[in-house]
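Colleagues,

Please find the record for the two-part complex below.
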Amino acid sequence: MTEQAPVSRLEKILTKGYFAVTGECGPPKGADRSVIERKAQYLKGTVDAVNITDCQTAVVRMCSMAVAKILLDLGIEPTMQMTCRDRNRIAIQSDLLGAYALGVRNLLALTGDHQSFGNHPEAKGVFDLDSIQLLQIVHRMGEEGVFANGEEIEGGPVRFFLGAAENPFADPFDFRPYRLAKKVKAGARFIQTQLIYNVPKFAQFMQRVRDLGLDQKVYILAGVGPIKSYGAAKYMATKVPGMDVPEEIVERMRKTPKEKQKEEGIKICVEIIQQVKEIPGVAGVHIMAIEWEEAVPQIVEMAGLYPRPEV
Amino acid sequence: MIIANRKPFEEIKAMVAPFNRILILGCGTCVTVDFSGGEKQVGILAAELRMARQLEGKPLETVEHTVQRQCEWEFIDPIADMVRSVDAVLSMACGVGVQAMAERYPDKIVLPALNTVMMGMPIEAGVFVERCAGCGNCVLALTGGICPIARCSKNLLNGPCGGSQNGKCEVNPEIDCAWHLIYEKLKAMGRLDALMEIMGPKDWRPAGGGGPRKIVREEERLEFMEM
């Protein structure tokens, strides 16, 4: 897909054709780095790279760049998430230079959750850019060595392995593969999807993605995650916008005795990994076990994805 | 048109508390049409204030008047005597009208009775919606006549985001997803190819990012000079 040498371990894994496994680490709502160190022990060696969310759901947390640096120090490859909600193009590009200098090489470009969902709903959202424009800018920083204004970056190109998110279950469903195509056109080299519980609908999405030839142009990592309880399943099915949790999964969790629900949630997650792995064009999985990082090693092992390849 | 909302009564009452005689000045244009600051609303607010002040034993004298447009000198110049006769002016115009009065009558205290909210229109009786954000660089030709700057919660130029569900915005189910509307509109018109083009980063200077905006029409100025 590219002639250039890979800049990160994740890029190497994907370009060499291995099935990638990425994880996620939510920064703490405080300044205690031991929280990250505790979460990191479950992710080190079990996944190829770890996403660090950028004040997800618009809640103030430790910044993703600092957490990325902490992970690097612990020998874990970070994928820094960058949203357009809190920063204009000046702050974004400035942060990217800093992150690169600290050793960050994977970047996930997002528009960001709206501030009204967070803990400071009275804040002014920035949205100077959207995710597609952000991708364009970061892509040019890497390929042409220029900022958004066309000015040259001192010292040459700043090349990230650039990713984007896509929600295959959002509306209008028919337009989603085309929006993905726009992200690829803008410079996305990998995609991490929203959590998948409705595998048949995801397979339908992937069929359209293949029809457009997009699987040949971008590495698609299917988003998966264990459900902790029947309550969590019900909540995601009914309360979270853009989530599609089929009735049979909610029902399966409901029928499981309370003390076995965590185990069942992990089992469902592993089954989904095995199913999406068989869908042509799926290049890996992105395991989102926010505040349940300790489940990740078990999931990776049960899914037959452990040990991770040395690249 | 400009759409406004009357401020909470207690806030207005507190603003006029120091005064004994005020002019409550309505505007006959936008805020008359949206029922926030026209002649009728001037009458209602004046009666409410007088009653409240009567109960407090500190009667308030009100002068009620409505001009056709509070945002033009020619309509506010003729009321100079009326303005001179009061302690303060409580303007029921949008923020433009309030400032026009404050500028024309620099010695007078001018207070806003309304919160100016948006540029929009009534879509049905009593329901007003936002339609334009005055960004200074219209993209409606590319988006099927539906504005993503004013009508998308994240003012995306390449939407819809992942929070679009059943045609509604995740921010509030009362809000239609602008990008869903744009998609459906362009699809119906056979113009979906327009959506495949990436709209680049927006120049926000015409939107106010370059500081307060000013438009000069030279030909109009020359004509004025000749007069």
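Chain A touches chain B through 36 residues (CB under 8 Å).

Comments are welcome before we finalize the supplementary table.
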